[in-house]
Amino acid sequence: MSNRNNVAPRHIVLAFSGGLDTSVALVWLKERYRCRLTAFIADLGQGEELDVAARKAEKLGADEVRVVDLREEFARDYAFPMYRADALYEGQYLMGSSIGRPLIAAAQLRIAEEVGADAVAHGATGKGNDQIRFEMTFAALRPDITVISPWREWEFASRTDLLAFAGRNGIELDLSSGERPYSIDSNLLHTSYEGEVLEDPALPAPAGLLFRVNDVADTPAEPETVEIHFQSGNPVGVNGTPLSATGVLETLDAIGRRHGIGRLDIVENRIFGMKTRNIYEAPSGALLWHAHRAVQSLVLDPEVAQLKEELMPRYAALVYRGLWFAPERLMLQAAIDFSQQDVTGDAVLRVHHGGVQVVGRRSPHSRYDVAFATFEADDVFDQRDSSGWLRVSTVRFRAGRRAGAVDR
Amino acid sequence: MSNRNNVAPRHIVLAFSGGLDTSVALVWLKERYRCRLTAFIADLGQGEELDVAARKAEKLGADEVRVVDLREEFARDYAFPMYRADALYEGQYLMGSSIGRPLIAAAQLRIAEEVGADAVAHGATGKGNDQIRFEMTFAALRPDITVISPWREWEFASRTDLLAFAGRNGIELDLSSGERPYSIDSNLLHTSYEGEVLEDPALPAPAGLLFRVNDVADTPAEPETVEIHFQSGNPVGVNGTPLSATGVLETLDAIGRRHGIGRLDIVENRIFGMKTRNIYEAPSGALLWHAHRAVQSLVLDPEVAQLKEELMPRYAALVYRGLWFAPERLMLQAAIDFSQQDVTGDAVLRVHHGGVQVVGRRSPHSRYDVAFATFEADDVFDQRDSSGWLRVSTVRFRAGRRAGAVDR
Amino acid sequence: MSNRNNVAPRHIVLAFSGGLDTSVALVWLKERYRCRLTAFIADLGQGEELDVAARKAEKLGADEVRVVDLREEFARDYAFPMYRADALYEGQYLMGSSIGRPLIAAAQLRIAEEVGADAVAHGATGKGNDQIRFEMTFAALRPDITVISPWREWEFASRTDLLAFAGRNGIELDLSSGERPYSIDSNLLHTSYEGEVLEDPALPAPAGLLFRVNDVADTPAEPETVEIHFQSGNPVGVNGTPLSATGVLETLDAIGRRHGIGRLDIVENRIFGMKTRNIYEAPSGALLWHAHRAVQSLVLDPEVAQLKEELMPRYAALVYRGLWFAPERLMLQAAIDFSQQDVTGDAVLRVHHGGVQVVGRRSPHSRYDVAFATFEADDVFDQRDSSGWLRVSTVRFRAGRRAGAVDR
Amino acid sequence: MSNRNNVAPRHIVLAFSGGLDTSVALVWLKERYRCRLTAFIADLGQGEELDVAARKAEKLGADEVRVVDLREEFARDYAFPMYRADALYEGQYLMGSSIGRPLIAAAQLRIAEEVGADAVAHGATGKGNDQIRFEMTFAALRPDITVISPWREWEFASRTDLLAFAGRNGIELDLSSGERPYSIDSNLLHTSYEGEVLEDPALPAPAGLLFRVNDVADTPAEPETVEIHFQSGNPVGVNGTPLSATGVLETLDAIGRRHGIGRLDIVENRIFGMKTRNIYEAPSGALLWHAHRAVQSLVLDPEVAQLKEELMPRYAALVYRGLWFAPERLMLQAAIDFSQQDVTGDAVLRVHHGGVQVVGRRSPHSRYDVAFATFEADDVFDQRDSSGWLRVSTVRFRAGRRAGAVDR
User: Which residues of C touch A (CB under 8 A)?
Assistant: First the structure.
């Protein structure tokens, strides 16, 4: 894990985004290691022009560029398992960034295998979460590979140094990333914002900073109804149309953006324990979270539902902490997926001015039964049984009182 | 627990609301037991005219009526401890009903003590949650008292029978409760809706059913900013004004109603395991949940924060299940309250068209430290340490690979 | 669930043991319901003469007797999954009784299916755990069948009444069960003792009461070494000999009995919350618990091991509470079994005078690596990395101190 | 945390044991830093001659030696809170070593305060657990102090190098520690063994290696009965005699040693995730674990008992991982201690040939009530209530079946 021992790599695969950090990393790696370098550009639906990034990599000296469309794999094998868990980190964050890194890193290892590289590198800083998510994945899947983390090796002491190096080496900053060069991460699921202008958590984000999701003030006057279809815990279509995993996310993203859905301004605990202030925009995730819970609410056994709630925060912390490929995540996923077999059905949401309301849900496996729920006379439940249940369930209180318990 | 053995009570304290169920219960109890009856009317901020209810109780034959203002106790000793836990049942429900019953039942026992009564009674049905919340409290606090649950004893097989009895006995149905006589519960925190017109979970609530919170379409065009102040986990003021516990809730309730905050349409698992569809309107709870999390996010140690997330679903289930006075709830509360000592500070929320956004938060005990969070050079964190951390943290993956682990 | 509505069964399958309770139940059922009755005798390795019980059932009036050897199924599909979880109820009890009932009940339903019966009955009392374990299984697997629980229906108010009825109906008490007629449960795994002579938890069991396992004073002077072989978490042989599941348990039972292994004198919380004092003798279970942990200790990823410890008490409570067929048990089992794929290898135990010591363990999937563990210089771990790990891991404490945290 | 920046300390407090590692550390620190050094010798009841160690420290060049008797504090404020939790790491280990380090480190900080030192040092290696337990405590209590960890700084590549340095510097190895110089840790609670001769986990410990506890073969022929008295979860006396915390541990230690109690041979996961094989001898801990559970079993509410079981593995991992002073440990302790208020009473144990059997327990707050437990007729429990309880508790299974659930 990392190149402390000055192993000389023969061939490095660098995860390249086209932004400042990975551009500098590319030039620095070529200069420092003077070996073959493949720039790997992962398409996770970040919506940038990947051929521009590819040309940039070539221009900066990459010996080879690989662009890989990972969108369907991302949606199906990463986002959806996480959504099956209703995962929220620290009660609120949908983890659109956290879930992207393990896939990029895993795909990077596949490229390394294909091209016969002996090293992988990434452009994440040495204080943040992404380095951990990259390197936990490398270690879990291929612990023998050499990992190079330029930010933890190079001599630049600050962003200013980095910009100077970029200048000296003809690394162009494009306009959008030039202004806030390190604060944005985007993919199919979300856009995140972090950094200078947000550093005082007492202050709101400056107007105009966020761009994915409409401000509430700019959302349509009329509400929109959207119906999402699920099979075994996974969304499989929208408004009556069967869709690929990517298709589901793209469709919901467009709806959510329009109506201002899924903004979150939060101070969270980073993996290393520092607190950081982030703003997230996750329109499709917010819609899916509500819709999945709605269908699930009809189907799950009550005790399964409760157990799932209790396991979720642990699961979420594992995903956040880059432990997607750790066996304890897989162990929890086995339990969660067991619960999802019957989670098939439809949820109807009403989106309006930034808000999501579930207004209907149905399932062929629904355990909702009006015969149980009604307050009219019924055949399935004799209210006198409640007396027995209550007398039995309070035996412990009576025993406690007899014993003069002080624990209340 | 319940009167199976035909013990003849001398004096019953009935929790009386003035609605159909408790009105019928009052008449029925007098007819059946022919003993002294005190009607106990708890003021939890339900916003109804309590003197009307008191006169009704007298007219229906109560020997004595006691109206007790429990609002401050409710806010301070019931709602706030629950909010300190960020409790949500099944990931979504703020439990405005669940938290009211234990206080009503506890206060009812105090009245029984004062008036020398040997029995308590409530008007909750034999299938629902409220009977359990009442009777768990009775059992935990005074297991020897006689508990009478008319719904589980009387001969009425349906609501139709009940209405017939009401008619025969001159029990008036007032307009609002006459139309949907059993579906509403209201207090300082929320209004809940359950019953016939909502029984098909696939269908939205009929227009006009809900009344506490403005429809999004009717909310003000302009957003409003609200600042909430906390001390040791409890809200103590709004917008710079120190307030009583009740005052905090009332102030936030008014703001939330205006802006359409806190509606939830959900299918939940009742204590007995049946599924039920409920709609809740909890404006102050929704605001406090976000605000408390915002201040807390600055203050809590990261591992304390994670442990608190993991304990919360268990805590929430205990509250939902009527186990407020059970020692395991108190045991968890001891842990939660330990974490809240430093949760002092302010949260700034922007409310608009049904949505809540945290836009700022500060605390004198904030652990947020820009020196840690910055991506510029700093003195407190050497990025090369990350390499050591990563090499150590991935030892287990390397060991696993050597052992040919199949568990990934 | 139970026959409150006076449904007239056509054909009852009774779980019959030959003891007093089920004998009385058989006669009472025939007398009360005057329908066809099949006595079902489950062989769980209780070591009693089943043909004696079968003849007794016939003599008492059973229309048909079915004896079914369930030992291999019991060991393989019930005991072993539970042992894979290292389950202990309340930290100590191996649950030899708890795990037997779900199988008996499930097999009883199979018999009911075969013979076309519409009702099942058991002889467990109305205060204990076994009724719940029977009836939870019936409800989970076939909720529509009529369940008859004679103890909760009949008119006998006490054991004395029961004995009188037995006397009147010529039901013989055999000597062993006559003296302590209801206190013993035995199967392949264990013998349990409960009841009158043990009712004062301050007093030791009378000498001579327990019979399965040798008193320490009577155990061999020399220790014995036993090696147990595991595949994917399950024991598959002893001392070099591959064995059936039953064979493993029988072999270990004999060794354990000889050396006085597996006695436990405990006050436990029954499902209904009363406390009860029980003595258990579980020789094979005690040996397997230690052996399984020993092999597992070599193989599991450390975080998987920790997660498994945290899930275990929940799992154990589910098994104890009769929820073997509940989906939340299966959900946890999915997680546990995920962890067991590589738990293959051998454990060497030394048993002596009532004690078990693990003295060796090995596994082809061992992650134990002397290169990591040694205090000599090594290539796999650079001690200076610990400094980085420590600096990173204590960031939160430094942040806490800066914030003047009072939470320590 | 650690001295990477080559800060020149003015005054170091070294935790000194008199063994090889801390002796070499003392000499090396004086040589390297040429500053004032206080040798701190903590008396945790390790039973070594502390004045010999003190003279050795002086002879090796310590400017000052402080010997502090920490036994009562160790027993009362460290061991007992941990025993109140029934803590076992990975299901088996009583953590006699883990619990000692935080106290040594905390006392070392007190000495540093007293003598005005600006640095602390310890002799723990860079791969093991103890460095972490020391340094987590330093960081939690005084994050600003300079920490020096010679093992992670010095040039010695192996134990052989260390021995050579010791030879060159006239550091004597005493006989006992010379043969297995780094493998032993002893205190009031236990002795642990780790290292070369135990490195193959498939092989038993060589005969004669262990010395604290009698081999079973050498234990008395007759059993001994011991009664332990508890108040609010803490042991306060033995066999009718009130004792100090130290007195309790010493008394039980002597009994346990004689009867061969408390040996454990285990492969455990170190904090860094490597597996290590250890043998522990913890006679008093084993006796207290059983005795505490016995008294507790009479007193705890059943749901409190279950919650405590579920929290324990998390608590144990925190203690093992050196997080004694971390707020999450204190948070869990708050919950655990809440449960212990009534855990007052006596447990009677029979110890014989290496085994512990609880044979009796009593408490003034016992909830054990023969009226509930009996199978005779009683007034407190109507068996027919069980039918109601069962019908209610199985509603969910019936609902599941109707819905055609596949999750079983």
Answer: 4, 272-275, 301, 303-304, 306-308, 314, 323, 326-328, 330-332, 334-335, 337-339, 382, 392-393, 395-396, 399
